[in-house]
Amino acid sequence: MKNKFQIKEHFWTYYQNLIQEVVIPFQEKVLNDKVPDIEKSHAMENFRIAAGEAEGEFYGMVFQDSDVAKWIEAASYALMLKPNTEVEKKLDNVITLIGKVQQPDGYLNTYFTVKEPNHKWQNLQEAHELYCSGHMIEAAVAHYEATGKITLLSIMKKNADHIYHTFGKDKRRGFPGHPEIELALVRLYRVTGDKRYLELSQYFINERGTSPNFFKEEKGKRDWSVWNSDPEQVLYTLNQAPVREQQDAVGHAVRAVYLYAGMAEVGKETGDESLIKACETLWNSITQKQMYITGGIGSTHIGEAFTKDYDLPNDTAYSETCASIGLIFFAQKMLEATLESKYADVIEKALYNCVLAGMSLDGKKFFYTNPLEVNPEYAKKIVGFEHICAERPGWFSCACCPPNVARLIASLNRYIFTETEEAVYFHLFIGGELDLSESKKLKIQVTTEYPYNNVISYRFQPVEAAVTTTIAIRIPDWSETYQLIVNGEKLNAEQKNGYVFITKKFVENDEIVLQLDMMPKKVYANLNVSENAGCTAIVRGPLVYCFEGTDNGGTLANLRISKDGKIVEKKNNSILMGGVTTLEIDGVRLHAEDALYSFRRPMQETCKLTAIPYYAWANRGENQMRVWMQEE
């Protein structure tokens, strides 16, 4: 399956090349325990043991299989960007191994095959069997789309059939403690046409939160546990009410957005408006009251969870990379269902800030959590800061985030546009070529230096004769003004749901140019966010900026942004990919006595502060970082 949109631009070509050339080979070595001095994975060895090709004990998290699945998915997307016989051969070998692990009835899970063979399907609350199947199903679909091979797809159809015959109405009751399989089953349905998979996804969604408490019933039937989780903690498992009655985003943030993404997929596929309406309610709960300025979600390390409205601490923020990726999945499903720009706005926010910050610029180190303020003297050293890292580690014992970043960036082509019978919607401003030769007899060349330049050009090349169609281009929420120029003339176009619509007969070399307002701006938080009272953050276009100690004298607590000071854009060629736009901001540096407390107000001196894009922080050694700065 060919990508209709081929990315051809400086910024994202760099990242997709990094995924292909560095990240995928690096992660394959990690999964095979061939990278020294980092957390052990053992994920591939678990499969070898389960297949009878090696001896040993299962090692790792109960969901360790999912790391392999996400790597397969990322590698498959990479093959769609550029053929690679070596990667394809490695995929074939891994898939052959997975096939050897699968049991005759279709069951597939190394933890239970190796460690708990008598306890299959007894602990859906904790054991992640359905979660792992979901990720492997997604990998199978991606591999089939990339190569046309049905090897992994056949394995996972057999696995999905086993799950279908095990769970459902008039069968065994159940649904996953960690959602994921819901959205995976919809993907499997779309590629196979087998409606049983869609029905199974509907069942898992509709059964959640119903009475009696399934997880409580389940625990009462077994005498073993993974983590001894309390089934009465219904908020954590999103089991507090049927999904259509849930009003607030609660519990484990990744589980939540994976569930909501599945709900949106099923709602769109079946025309169930009640699911879409429920998703809109939950979306508002997240984005209006519980989302960081970077697109991060899940503010506490306790349960990796949402807490209360407006509880958004900066220095202890959990903001898991996977949670922002899941938020992007949720946003994309809602965008496809509604074609409203607010969903694309959040995709952009989370993508350019929290997700990119989750990986180092060399592709070999990763953040699990993404705080908005870091003091290396506190990180990992003080109670409450155990989860905070001042520099990215090479891997994690719970390594869900690194391969998740890889599969998202490798599949980014799928998030840029939507084609309907009536129009072509451009959601993200990414350069490249959109080939609609088969459907609309049209090719569109997109040229931009986004996210640092504010101009996006769309040049049209009809395949044969002139083509009449409608082009819809998102106007991002951060752009207060914009100009639309068609063939050199300004146009006041119709705007609806955050998009401008241009309908015309396109001939060769017709051009639409969008100019956005990318002037740096100060942002102020809702006054209910007590952490940010008296503070401001700086954004430029889609990018949130931050301050690092290495640029600002080491210590950041004694710095203030001048209330009426200037913000000057500067090109910096020393940080990333030939240069980024940094910001020079008028500020104040405070000087105080050494006493713990004093009756003297600190002395002030004017200074210049330097801010860099948040995604680029922690790439120049360990130092302090802040997004929100007090304003003087």
From TrEMBL:
Residues 424-518 form the Non-reducing end beta-L-arabinofuranosidase-like GH127 middle domain. Residues 521-630 form the Non-reducing end beta-L-arabinofuranosidase-like GH127 C-terminal domain. Residues 7-413 form the Non-reducing end beta-L-arabinofuranosidase-like GH127 catalytic domain. It comes from the Bacteria. GO terms for biological process: carbohydrate metabolic process. Signal peptide: none annotated. This is Glycoside hydrolase family 127 protein. It comes from Anaeromicropila populeti.
